[in-house]
């Protein structure tokens, strides 16, 4: 059972990135999978998730209106579309199950800088 994040990179302020979280080894559509991030010197924080049972979404206040979470159960993948990126969004982004979490993976680095 594990998840693998991808899609990070270096982008200028105001730019966009799309992160992917590919899951394997478990029944993907039985779990809510969320996105988290950790910036240097800060604690890991929840960014967004999409409830697999009812389709409800959650966004941290800091990303509302800019980020969009989605999932493709057929591909066992969760996405995070990030628009209007700001330097404060720079962090390592992780995904994980919202319940019975897995060991944290390596994440994907997002750097927003001019």
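^ Assign residues to that structure.
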């Amino acid at each position: 059972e594990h998840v693998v994040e991808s899609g990070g990179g270096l982008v200028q302020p105001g730019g966009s990135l799309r992160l992917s979280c590919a899951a394997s080894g478990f029944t993907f559509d039985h779990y809510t999978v969320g996105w988290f991030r950790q910036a240097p010197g800060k604690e890991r924080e929840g960014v967004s998730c999409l409830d697999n049972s009812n389709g409800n979404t959650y966004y941290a206040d800091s990303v509302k209106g800019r980020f969009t979470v989605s999932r493709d159960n057929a591909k066992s993948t969760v996405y995070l579309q990030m628009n209007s990126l700001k330097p404060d969004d720079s962090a390592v982004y992780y995904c994980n199950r919202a319940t019975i979490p897995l060991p944290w993976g390596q994440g994907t680095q997002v750097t927003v800088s001019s």
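The mean pLDDT is 95.
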